[in-house]
Specification:
alpha/beta; Rossmann fold; Helicase, Ruva Protein, domain 3; five-stranded mixed β-sheet; 13 helices; flat
Length: 398
């Protein structure tokens, strides 16, 4: 799974990415700070299964704080996008090529309206951030359309002559856009498309491009800089204007400041929580105290969190509908090295116990006998649909 962090130059993409990963990335208030994509691990938060067994886990990957398990996910911070990207403007071609790898998108929008369409600083609230949402969707739709149109006429003539199963033929043609046979079957029915694809004109292909983009690149809007006066009013207005989209208020700068302070031992802070504890006030200078007070009053108390963790969690568990699954045993929760519940895997929606076995190892899948729900100690079959936070033991014939 790979999640792309996208948006206009200077909207706060790189700040969000660093806040999510604590990676060393360049952050500056000018367009195209990010020339090459930054790749790193963010973390989604899950209630750890260890407390249900009255044990303390030892994660191999990620970490656990006070019963909150943080599981790594791949993030990609791509070059800033400007209008006309699908025509190669700005870093458009690179942006769209990088973006094609992503399973879902987090669109960072400056909800305070303090940068214009080119990513240049302007007076706060003087620019309408709704335009950013519209232009990104337009750029992606146009990119999908251009991609579909390449070689389409020749392909359509061949399909008319050879008469293959339409959904399978188109899925193969558009596989580079992650179009599957089942998805294409849905599109043919949903859009009531003519069986003779030589009759599909540009308007039909445009509709198809839009629907395929929505299905293959689900998107969440991170309404960044929510702490700037007037930004919340913009957020409420956009919530009404785009009811089909998931919009989350956030302050990437606040999250980054809290994580850096925690990293240096100044505060105790669990990402996604609505508070922090100062460990030693004597180590803080006046500027740091003021900054922490500002975050506490203007972000945490108002919005119950900085929003960064919620953005990541919703992208993985709501947009992509992934499930967190712990491998374990009814009689033994630790691995051969004595680590308790060392792993937590993220699996797609509708994954089965057999899918999980193959996730652990090909041999485990090949020699699958049964699975056991460790919480209930009951056996389940290979077709058992995994639930979020299941703890599963796999029994094999070897």
């Amino acid at each position: 799974m790979l999640i792309g962090v996208v948006g206009k130059p200077s909207a706060g993409k790189s700040t969000f990415f660093k806040a999510a990963t604590l990676a060393e990335v360049e952050i500056a208030n000018y367009p195209f700070t990010t020339i090459k994509p930054n790749h790193g691990a963010g973390y989604v938060k899950v209630d750890c299964a260890d407390r249900e067994f009255n044990v303390k886990c030892n994660p191999r990957f990620g970490y656990c704080i006070q019963g909150k398990r943080f599981v790594p996910v791949d993030l990609l911070d791509v070059a800033g996008l400007v209008p006309g990207a699908h025509e190669g403007k700005g870093m458009g071609n690179q942006f769209l090529d990088d973006l094609n790898q992503a399973d879902a998108l987090i669109h960072i929008v400056d909800i305070s309206g303090s940068i214009n369409e080119k990513g240049e600083p302007v007076e706060p609230l003087s620019y309408d951030p709704a335009r950013d949402i519209e232009f990104l969707e337009h750029e992606l739709d146009m990119w999908y359309l251009r991609s579909i149109e390449k070689g389409w006429e020749k392909f359509a003539r061949a399909v008319k002559q050879e008469k293959p199963e339409l959904n399978k033929a188109i899925a193969k043609q558009l596989s580079f856009l992650r179009v599957t046979e089942s998805l294409m079957e849905e599109m043919l029915e949903e859009l009531s498309l003519d069986a003779d694809i030589t009759k599909w004109d540009k308007s039909v292909l445009m509709k198809l491009a839009t629907e395929l983009r929505k299905a293959t690149k689900p998107m969440l809007i991170a309404c960044n800089k929510i702490d700037i006066p007037g930004a919340y009013e913009n957020y409420k207005r956009l919530k009404e204007k785009f009811p089909r989209l998931m919009l989350i208020p956030c302050s990437a700068e606040s999250e980054l400041a809290l994580k850096e302070a925690a990293k240096h031992g100044l505060i105790d802070y669990i990402p996604g929580e609505n508070n922090f504890t100062i460990k030693n006030e004597g180590r803080l200078n006046e500027r740091q105290k003021k900054a922490l007070d500002f975050i506490r009053i203007n972000v945490l108390e108002k919005y119950k969190a900085t929003g960064v963790q919620e953005v990541l969690d919703k992208a993985v568990f709501e947009l992509l509908k992934y499930r967190a699954i712990f491998p374990g045993g009814v009689n033994k929760l630790q691995d051969q090295h004595g680590n308790i519940l060392p792993d937590c895997f993220l699996l797609p929606h509708n994954s089965t116990a057999l899918d999980f076995a193959y996730k652990l190892h090909t041999d485990i899948g090949n020699h699958f006998v049964k699975a056991i729900d460790v919480k209930t100690k009951k056996p389940v079959g290979k077709e058992y649909l995994l639930k979020h936070r299941d703890v599963i033991e796999i029994a094999t014939s070897k």
